[in-house]
Structure prediction request, 1416 residues.
Amino acid sequence: MTLLGLHGVVVDGTPHGAAAPRRLLDGVDLTVEAGQITCLVGESGSGKTLLLRTALGISTARPGLVGGAVSWRGRTVLRPGQRRPDLRAGDAGYVFQDPGQALDPFRSIGRQVEDSVAVRHRGLARAERARRAEDWLARVGLPDADGVARLHPHELSGGMAQRAAIAVALATEPELIVADEPTTGLDWSLRRGIVELLEQLARDEGAALLLISHDLEVVRRLADRLVVLFGGQVVEDGPGAATLRPGPPRHPYGIELAARAEAMRTGEPGPATGRGATAPNGCVFAGRCALRSAATFADRCATSPPALTAVGDGHLVRCHGVES
Amino acid sequence: MRWSAAGVGGGSVLFAVLALRVWAVFIDPDPWPSDGAMGGPSSAHWLGTDAVGRDLFLRVVESTEAFVGPGLVACAVALLLGTLAGAAVGYVPDHPVSKVLRGVLTLLSAWPRLVLVVVLLAVFLAGVSDPSAWAPARVYVLGALVGLSFVPQVAGVLSERVAHFRRARFVDAARAHGLTDVAILGRHILWANCRQLLLRQACSVFGAFLLVETSLSYLGDYGVPEPRPSWGNILADMRSAVVRSGGIAGDSGWVEAARSGGLLGVVVPSLAIVATIAGALALAEYFAQRDAEA
Amino acid sequence: MLHETRRWLLPLGLCLLLPATVAAQAFEYAEDELPFTLNPLHESSMAETRIGELLFEPLWGLGYDGAPEPRLADAYELSPDKKSMTVFLREGLKWSDGTPITAADVEFTVAAYLNPKSDSPDRSRVAFIKKAKAEGESTIKLIFHDPEPEPLQKLSFKILPKHRFESTAVPRKDPFWFKPTSSGPLMVESQDLGTWSLQLNPEAFRKPNIDRVKVREMPDKNQQVSSLGYGYIAAMISVPGQYLAEIERNRHADLVPYQSKSWWYLGMNGKHALLKNVAVRNAVGKALDLDEALALIGEGDRISGPFVPSSKFYNHADSVPLLTPDAMESASLMEGQGLTFEDGTWMHKGEPVRLRLFYRAGLGEQGQTVALNLQSQLRRAGFDAADPVAMDKSVWNDKVFAQRDFDLVLDSWSFDKNENVYDLFHSKGAQNFIAYSNRDVDSLLDKAIAETDPAAKVAYLREVHRQLAIDQPYVFLWSLRSYTALRREVESAWVSPFYYFSQFADWKLLPKK
Amino acid sequence: MRPALAYLARRATGLAAVVGVSSALLGALLLFAPGSPVAEQGLAAWLGGFWRGVFAGDLGPSYRGIPVLDLVGRGAATTLPIVGFALLLSLTGALGIVLGLGDRVAALSRPLRLGLHGLSLVPVFLLGYVALVVFGVPPDGPRRWWAAVFILAVGDGTLSDVILGLDAERRRLVEQDFVHSMRLRGLPLVRRLAPHLALPLAQLLAARLVFLLSGVLVLEMVLGIQGLGLMGYRAAVKADFTLLVAIAVGLTGLVAAVQLGVDALRVAVDPRVRKDSRQTARGSV
Prediction:
C-alpha cells in the first residue's frame, strides 16, 4: 500500500544569495510503500532534502510548493499554497543529518524521548513514560540508558547524539521514518552501525524507511526501491536490485554514480565529473552527459526535455537515449 | 552591485543630505538678519524667518554642518576602535591584551551613552573660560563620544564574526601558504568577510549620532549651541510657534500657524530628522542583507 | 495574539486622546523652577518669595493700596527720635502647630537674620535694626541704627518660629527648609520632587477661601501656556511677550499685569582691559540699537538708569537721555582710545576686540533672543562678539559672581518696594560683581542709605541714576511690561507687585466650567 | 549546581568591578572641573568618601537641598517603573506583532510594520513635544505616565529594534532542526520554545536598556518628569557633581545588575552554562 505519495511536486524557492525565487523541484513523482525501504540518492543541490521537507511541511523554502500534491495513504494532505500537511503528530519521524541540531539543547535527552512517547500514549504516568523512554534509549544501542536520559545534548558525542535523535524520532512510533543522510556528520566507523540500526528498527516496527543517502554501498544493500534525483527531477526510479548497475539501459547519471561507488570500493580514481553548460529547455543532465557527445540523438538533449520512460519492471529512466 | 529598495532609498536620502552639506559650504554663515522676525514663507524666505529674523530654510540647510562631519567622526571612532578591539578579541581571545580589552568593553557598554556625553560636556564646560570659542569643536567632541559609546557594539559583532572565521578551513589553508596572521586577519577575514558588517554598523552609528545630536540640541545645553543651527535647536526655537499661534486648546490656530511660518519651521526639521535617520537605517539594513548574502 | 494586542492598545489610545477630566480642586500654579528652600531666611529667588508669601506672615505686609498693612502686628509706637519703635502683636496668634506666636519669635527672627552664621541673602534688608527685644508676650521693642521715619515697609520680612530652631545661627540644611511651621494662610502638606503641596493652615488669622495650593515646576514656557490652556494649572506666573497674543485669545484665561520692578541690563566687566574704560563702555552702548532688540521680545519701557520708569527714584531729566544708536560717535570714541578699525573689526594691540557674552539661563527664550541680537549688533559694529552662552544660576554664581570670568553679561534684577541698588553699584556692594567703583556714586549711595528724609533720599538716588547713565557700568536696557496669566475660574484675585500672593486669602477658585 | 554558582559569582565580581571602576573614572574626569569636590579633595580622598557615603547612606545635600541619596532614590522610583514598563510594552507589542502576525497575515502585517517602524524612528523628544502640544498631556497623573511609557517604548527606534531583533531570533529558531522535529511530533511550540526565546530576548532588552536610559533623560526633560534623567541633566547644568556622579554610577550599577540578571537567566535556561562554568556560550560583551 502506498503510504506517502508525491505527485508532480513543483517547488520554488530562493537559494541563499539568490535574488529571485527559482525552480528547485520540477514535477517530482515519488511513492513510498508501507513497510518498504526506499532510498533517495542524488548529489548535493539535487533537491533530495527539500523534497521530503516540503512534503512534511518543515521546509523553509518560499514560496514552497507551487504545483502537484502530496498524499498520505491515498488522501491528499498537501496542496500548493499550503505550508503544513494534514498529518497527525507522529505519523512521520525524521532523522536529521546533523544530530547536534536535531535535539533541543536546553532539554535533557530523557525528557525529549518522553515527549515523543507521549505523542502516541497520552495520559501515561510520568514514571511509565520515563521507563519507556529509557527502553527506547536502550533499543537504539545507548549504554547506560538511565544515565544518558539525564544528560543534555551537548554532553553527548556525535554518534551517541544521533542514536538519541533516532530514539526521539522513533518513540512516536511513526509509520514512516525519513532518515536524511543520517551518517554524513559521523565518523566512518560509526556509519554502518547507524544505518543498520535504522534498518532493524524499521523492520521491527513495520515502518517504512525513506533513506536519503550518498552512500551507494549502503543504498544498494538496503533499498527495496531506489530513486535517483538530479537537478530537481527524478532521472531514474526502480527496484533496488535492478537500479544503479553498470551498463544500459540506464540513465547516464546513474552509470556515473555507480562507477564512482565502484572506484571508491576498489580505491581507484573514479570518473571525472563533467562540467558543461546546462540547456535551459533540454535535459537537466545535458551539460554533464557522457553519452551525449557520442550519441546520434544529441541535438534533442539540448532542445527538448526527456520524459520518464519504462525500461523494465517498475524501472523508469529519464533519458532520450533510452527513449530511442 | 545589486541595489534593493532599502539600498536605493537609504542611499538617496544620505546622498541628498551630503548634497545639502555641500550646499551649506556656499551659504554665507552670516546669521545677522535684517528681515522681520517670525515672518511667513515668501519667495525670499521659503520657510519664513525665526524669532531673531533668520532665514529658516538656510538654517535647515546649514544644520547639516552640525551632524555630517561629526557623524562621520563618530563612525570613524566606532569603526576604528571597534575593529581593533573586536579583531583582537575575536582572533586571539586568550591573549592578555584581549582580556583587558574585554574588560574595557564591558565597562563602556554599561554606560548609558547620553549620561556619558552629559557628564563629559558638563566637565568640559565648567573647565573652559571661553565656552563659545569651543562651540565648533564641541559637536566633534560629541561625535567622538557617541562613536566611543558604540565601540562595544561594533567590537561585539565583529569579534563574534572573526572568531567564527578564525576556525574556518580557509584560514588554515592560508596559514599553510605562509601568510602572516595580520594578512589573514586583514585581507581574508576583515576585508573579505566583515566589510558589509562594518558598513552596516557605520550606518547605524551615523543614525544614532543624529539622534543624540538633535536630542541634545533640542534640550539646549549640551548640543549645538546657538547661533549655530541644528535641526534640534531650530525645533526648540520654533516649538513655541505652534503654541504661540493658538495651535492649542482647540482654537483654530493651525492655519494661522502655517501662514506665519511657525508650523513649517517645526514640520520641516522634524521630517528632515526622521528621514535622515530612516535613510541611515535603511542603508544599514541594505548592508545587512548584503552581508547575509555574502 | 492580535486580539490581545488590540485589547491593550485601545484603552491606551483612549488614555492619550481623551480630554482631561481632572477636577482642579486645588489652585495649581507653575514656576519655571521650584523654590529650593521654604525658609524665608534663605530665600533668594522670586519663586521662593512667592511661596513664602503664602506660608509666612511679616509684621507688616503689602496692602491693596500698596501701603503697608498690619499682619502679625496690631499697632506700633515710634519713638520721637525715630530710632526705636514698639510693636504690639495681634492677640491670639498661633503657628500652624498650635504654638502661640509671641514677641520672642520676632526677637529671634531679627537675631537670626543678623547672625552672619545664618548666611541670609536678605541680611541687608534687616540690617537697619540694631536689636529687637521682647518686652512681654506680645510687645517688642525694635532699636534702629539710624532714625527711621517710615519703618513699616521695611518690616516686611517674614517672622520665624523660635521654637523650631536651636540657635539664631540657622544653617541652610536645617529641616525647616522643607518642613516649616507656618503663620500664613497655608501650610505645607507634602513635598514631591516636582511639586510643593500646600493646605489650609487651621491656625491662620487670615483664612483663605482656597484651601489647597500646588506649586508645580515647569521649565518650559510652552508647557506652561498649554497647561494653562488645558486648565491643568490656574496661574502662570510670568508670560513672555511672544505668548501674550495667544493667552489674550484664549477664552479660559486672562492676562493680569504683574509688576515686580524689574529691569534688564547688559553688564560690563570693570576688570576687563578695555571695558574698564568709560569711553569704551560708552562706545559699546552707542553701537547698540536697543529698540530693535526690545521689539523682538515684547513690550516694555527703555530705561536710562537702575530703576523702573515708574519709580520715584528714576531720573526723568532731559540731561539723562535714553541711549540712542550712533555708529559714528561710537567709532570716534573707540578711535579716541587708540583702537583701530581693520577689515570691519576693531583691533587692540593687533588683536581683534573679542567680547564674551554670557546670559542667565533663567531669562529663557527671551534671553536667548536678546543675546543673539546683541551679538549680531556688536558684530556689525566691528566687535568680535563670541556666540552667547547661557548659564544656569549656580554656574553663573561661580563664574560671574565669584571668579568674575566674563566680559559682558545679560541679566535682569527684580526689586521690592525699597529698590535698594546699594549692593549693585557701591564699590563694597555684595552684588557688585562688575567691580564698578566710583567714589561719587559710593558717597551718594552711603548718603541715601543713611538719609531719613524721603525727599532727600530721592534726590540722592536720582543723582546716582544720572552718574550711572554717564558711567555706564551697565548698559541699562528696559523694564518689560510683565503679565501674569490666570484662569477665569480664579476670582477676586489681586496680583500684588513683587510678592504676587500678598492678598491670596481673598482669592476664590470657582469650579471649572 | 556548583559550576553555575561559580559562574554567577565570577560575573557578579566583574560587574561590581565595572561599577567601581566607573566611579573612579568619573572621579578622574571631575579632576578637570574646577570647583568640583574631586578637584578640591584629590581623587583618592574623594573616591573613599564617596563610597563611604554610599554605604553610610549619606552623600550630603544636593543643589536642591534634598540629600543626594534621597533624591537618587526618589528619582529612581520615578524613572525605573517608566523604563521597565516601556521595555515591557515594547516587548509585548513586538511579541504581538512578530508571533501574532508572524507569517500568517503577511499582507496585513507589512503596512502595519512599516507604519510602526516609521513611528519608531521618530526621536523621543519629538514624540514628547507632540504629546505635550498636540495631545495636551497633563503635567501629572496617569495620562502623562502612560504617555511617557508609550513614547519611550516606541521612540528612538526602540520598538523597531525589538521587533527586528525578535523577528530575527524567531526566524533563526524556526529553521532549527529540533524545532522541525517538535513540529512533526506536534509538541506545543510556544511552551517549548519559550526558554529559547527568553535568553536572546533578555539580552536584547538588556542591550536596549542602555538606549532607553538615554531616551528617558530626554523625555523627562521634555515632559517635566522628576526622574533620574531630569535630575542628572539638571545636576550637570547646575554643576552639582556629587549628584551627577551618584546618578551616573547608579545607572551603571543598574545596567550591570540587569546584565547579571541576564546571566542568571542564562544559567537557569542553558544547561551548557549550568553544567560547565568554563563554557560561557555567547558571553555578553
Notes: The mean pLDDT of chain D is 84. Residues 1-63+241-285 of chain D form one domain.
